[in-house]
Specification:
Structural class: alpha/beta
CATH superfamily: Divalent-metal-dependent TIM barrel enzymes
Protein name: L-rhamnose catabolism isomerase
CATH topology: TIM Barrel
Bound molecules: 6-deoxy-beta-L-fructofuranose, manganese (II) ion
Number of domains: 1
GO molecular function: isomerase activity
Strand content: 5-15%
Radius of gyration: 22 Å
Helix content: 40-55%
Keywords: Isomerase, Manganese, Metal-binding
Number of strands: 11
Number of helices: 15
Amino acid sequence: MDTMISGDVVEKSNAVGEKTLRADYASLGEQLDRRGIAIDAILGKVEAFGVAIPSWGVGTGGTRFARFPGQGEPRDVFDKIEDCAVINQLTRATPTVSLHIPWDRADPVRLKQAAARFGLGFDAMNSNTFSDARDQKHSYKFGSLSHADAAVRRQAVEHNIECIEIGRTLGSKALTVWIGDGSNFPGQVNFARAFERYLDAMKDIYAALPGDWRLFSEHKMYEPAFYSTVVQDWGTNYLIAKELGEKAYCLVDLGHHAPNVNIEMIVSRLIQFGKLGGFHFNDSKYGDDDLDAGSIDPYRLFLVFNELVDAELSGAKDFHPAHMLDQSHNVTDPIESLMLSAVEVQRAYASALLVDRKALAGFQDENDALMATQTLKAAYRTDVEPILAMARLNGGGAINPVAAYRASFYRQKVAAERPASASGGGGIV
Ligand code: LRH
Ligand code: MN
Ligand code: MN
């Protein structure tokens, strides 16, 4: 299998930290042993855990107001795949890529080969009917799947069906639909009629879904529509999944909720009713900030994973959520941000695996709020870094991914081949 960074660079970087890591791992192992937890079992689960990289994340997305291109940004989807290969080589946590059409439109056979070269697969396909593609017949300015004009809806449905077709060749097994449809003024649209039209259009997309595929609908409270949004929250999202059928699930993008919303409880509800499809992980302070996962509120990320682990251990039905990142980078090297975000997601998972669930259930039954919450904190406070680093080392990755990446001078090397003026691809949404 090909790698973008020479194995020597990774080995040299690992030589610096391996001895300390083994000592730290042994010491954490003893500590966990005293708590009745086998460290190797946690390690095994972490090694098997993966989170997909969004193709649009490896370019410098910027913000709504400006984009300051970085050095050596990917020129096209093939460069994006190479950057994704770097992320997976060093973290061993990101075995798949999530593509966005039309941003990543290319010959699917070539795409598949390009990814296979690095042992990468494809996660959910993403359609785009929230902006107009060049040469498209009808504009999405006033909506897509919920548009008042049947011809626009048809065009949007066909685009989604084309995404499924591309994904079929790639070996993808899911389509994620996020629409920007909504309104900017009271009275602009009839809420019920718009939702009805959306549901009808989604039924057409659902009908084109292969038997082993899943359809994810992604809700978002507002933006680009600022007065009302057709798929605005998890309640509407649940109605959609329920209405469409058993292959339809809800996708939760952490940044798509109002500040202070209890996202972990939404996750629990969707799990309980068998409709949690997957995630777009990122972090935010104000809105859909698309900041690096775990950079603002790592405890919330842990609490989300606490629900996921609870479901995993209790064997919840229809529970196999897709894990994806969805971030935009403005001031950091996207590869570095995405590597650290993948590790943050893994960290939340590993920490949640340490929760003493028996003790927690006991405290809950006794209404011992203080001890119940301390049980979660005890897991959260445990530094699981040695487990994460050991998983990387065992998989041939880097103990310290950022250090190895910087030592490889990858960015400087690709900058020589990729002109600075090229678009980073991806949007600002
Ligand atoms: C919308 C969104 C959705 C898009 C992506 C680019 O805000 O989260 O997932 O596909 O951004
Ligand atoms: Mn998203
Ligand atoms: Mn978003």
